[in-house]
Design brief:
The chain is mainly alpha-helical. Helices cover 69% and strands 7% of the residues. It contains 4 helices and 3 strands; from the N terminus they run αααβββα. Strands 1-2-3 form a 3-stranded antiparallel sheet.
């Protein structure tokens, strides 16, 4: 099954975030409309809904394309992706006025301030989560589709 390996890699990469994002969207809609959260959450959904699944698919294609030369484990390769997504998301959110970086923390929607001492451990948890998801879930999908 060597036909279109990059297409299969893209599909294996987009599978998980495509399933997860509607669940997150439901949570955001409930928070905004039912719980009456006072800040405009929907403005922060543009970046993840539009780019994250595509980035996962392209990242899996990159892993497949570099396997012959690099031999990097899939979990480690996946754990690097947040190191690209976080600065990109920060720039987009700052340009849209969603995020403001201060000396002690980040302020979301001019309403919710999160200290850097909380952001750092959460980011480490995200790195671990990405490692595990890429190692087990994306790796499984790659094997099912005959590319891993």
């Amino acid at each position: 099954m060597n036909t279109h390996p990059y297409l299969r890699a893209f599909l294996a990469g987009v599978f998980f975030p495509t399933l997860l994002l509607p669940v997150m969207l439901t949570g955001f809609v409930v928070a905004r409309l039912v719980l009456q959260v006072p800040f405009p959450i929907e403005r922060g959904l543009v970046f993840p809904m539009a780019l994250v699944p595509a980035m996962w698919g392209l990242w899996n294609m990159l892993w497949l394309g570099t396997q012959a030369r690099v031999h990097q484990p899939l979990g480690l390769h996946g754990a690097v992706l947040p190191l690209l997504l976080l600065p990109g998301g920060t720039v987009v959110a700052s340009c849209l006025g969603i995020l403001r970086l201060g000396s002690h923390g980040a302020t979301w929607f001019q309403a919710c301030e999160v200290p850097y001492t909380l952001i750092a451990p959460c980011f480490l948890a995200v790195l671990v989560g990405y490692y595990l998801i890429w190692k087990y879930l994306v790796g499984f999908l790659n094997r099912v589709l005959g590319i891993g």
